[in-house]
Design brief:
By secondary structure, the protein is of the alpha/beta class. The protein contains 36 helices and 11 strands. Residues 134-155 have a biased composition (Low complexity).
Length: 814
Amino acid sequence: MAGAEQAAGRGPGAGPLLLEVRHHGPGSARAVRAALDAARPRVVLIEGPPEADALVPLAAEEGMRPPVALLAHAVDEPGRSAFWPLAGFSPEWVAIRWALRHDVPARFIDLPAAHTLAWQREDTGTPEEHTGTPEEGSAPEGEGAPEGEGAQAAPVGDGVRVDPLAALAEAAGYDDPERWWEDVVEHRGMGDGDPYAPFLVLEEAMGALRETYGSGGHDRDLVREAYMRLQVRAAVREFGEDVAVVCGAWHVPALRRKATVAADRSLLKGLPKVRTDMTWVPWTHRRLARSGGYGAGIDSPGWYAHLFAAPDRPVERWLTKVAGLLREEDRIVSSAHVIEAVRLAETLAAMRGRPLPGLSETTDAVRAVMCEGSDVPLALVRDRLVVGDVLGEVPESAPAVPLQRDLARLQRRLRLKPEASERELELDLRGETDAGRSRLLHRLRLLGVGWGEPAASRGSTGTFRETWRLRWEPELSVRVAEAGVWGTTVLAAATAKAEADAVGAGALAEVTGLAEQCLLAGLPDALPVVMRVLADRAALDADVGHLAQALPALVRSLRYGDVRGTDTAALAGVAAGLAERIFVALPPACAVLDADAAEEMRRHVNAVHTAVGLLGDTPMAGHGDLPARWHGVLGVLSGRDTVPGVVRGRAVRLLLDDGEIEQERAARLMGLALSPGTPPADAAAWIEGFVGGGGGMLLVHDERLLALVDDWLTGVPAEAFTDVLPLLRRTFSAYEPGVRRSLGELVRRGPRQGGGPAGVPAAGPPGFGADLDRERADAVLPVLRLLLGLGPDGTGAGTAVEKRSGEELAAVAG
């Protein structure tokens, strides 16, 4: 080590070798590897939580593939966790692998995660208040601190937050810190030649910044650095001076600074602490990107991984990758395109004064040469290559809660591998494998592990079909660990969680929704508890709105139960009893409502109507004909003046759609609702209830109803017109453009003359009679026969004279 120190310009006894890095920097990673090869230290100290020391050997196992992350979570506080991500091009990962290959101890020396997670609690309050934003780490990289699930930025006091990379880039005349870093580090071959020179330069720059800005607004870094100094001292006592430290460049001046042990320990006195567990979890390149929400991230992890892995000619190899991707998307990209793009990228770098083409030059070359100036395919290149969907792997020997192991077993059995990229999964529930996949995904959703989200199916709409949108995010590993408190298997944990949620539910609709989830997830042991709570809540809840919200989920459960083979007899009885209570309570509840309450009640009526329609197909012993009773309720609603117009109009429309009343009856009710004695606002609300939600085609095909609406609208007083216009616009703007166009044409032409049902008049354009004049219409038939070449009876060819007359007529017409 003494020779290494002299080569670094520090001389014997200068202390441990400090290797300042940029986290997730491929240039820093290469330089660290070169420096460790030259120095051959006896121990490698790495910025990171010391609780992870026992996990270091796992990095050498075959099943460990970066990107990965160290995960710490508070055992007693679900929702409180933090990540320390590592990519294959991260200097810390390179240092760990070097130590394992050379049988050298590797230890983490940052502040323990127990304190870091406790700081989160102080910053964000209770676990339920977590926001999911990352904790900002120390400069320059911002990556030294973990990514916290719910952590927020540390308070900065009176300091000013400093981004040292941005400060150095600005001093060098750059407006982009990433571009500056590429030019001075990535493209200068950091680690080539003298392995220590790059670190001396960075340390000098960071020393100047620390003198100017102090802690840079990151006051907690002072505490972290005190802990790191104590760990470095302990390592020096154990191993002598042969100690290498890999840490963020911002910390190196602080670690070099002389401070007493007592002063450092005083900074650590009284720190809050929580009980933590730690393990390795898979990470993704997308989560390394800043756009993914990781405050320690980089803009282009895929590009950095390429720079680290490319042995030579990185630009040529990169543009070849881009060409391959575009060819997969059926774009015509030849070898000539690649050659020309390389030339253009190199020319742009020379014009911009850069040592080698960077990401901006290669991107500009791809846009101009391979994408014909379009940014659309360029967005694909950024998504797939510049960022990428690389998902790391961890070995099975990594510590995990029993629930995680059971989930991994189910994923293998059901052939449902976690993937970082989003994909759609179509399930046919009639097959055992797909049914098992559906149950697993629903159970995980109940546990708060949102691996899959239900999506609208593009195929069959039957209940035996399900479509899921799957995407595995690293933080789901936290959710699985937290869900382990409910049980050791997915089935047991979901059952216990459903039972607890039922007992703690605050609204009746929550319980019915939970019953639906139990059926979808296949939790027969939880269903009795949920049903008991549901029956108790339904018996005590007198709010018709709550009852109406609860019924649809129950009915859906009955329908799902058929295809999933679940016994739903208990649900059927509860659903029927709930429907009967709604039938009794709904008419009184609809009286004297304001506009907002009336609109909400209309939604309840719609939901109950759909639910009762499905219940009509289900045997309901002892409950009579539920659809017929519901139609009676709608009849009562349609005729009561105390019921808001939007509800009355909707009731009439539902009865008409079900064939319970004739169109003449519907037109008569509309005529009464739109009579001159009805206030314009009430009449507009009735129209909204009647024709809203797809009623446009009804008006297109029944011009009598359209004429009633048209006559009423033209008769609205000017002073009331501005009040009813928003209601009407909201109603008619929901129609398809073709429907609106047809209605406009009908109104412009005017409806047919003649009396409508019940003597409703409908004036037509001048010159048209009240009815069809058949005598005048028949007079044109001979000419039509001649034009069409038909006989007098309209079935055969006409005579030669008739044909000739037809030809003459055609000539005249021509």
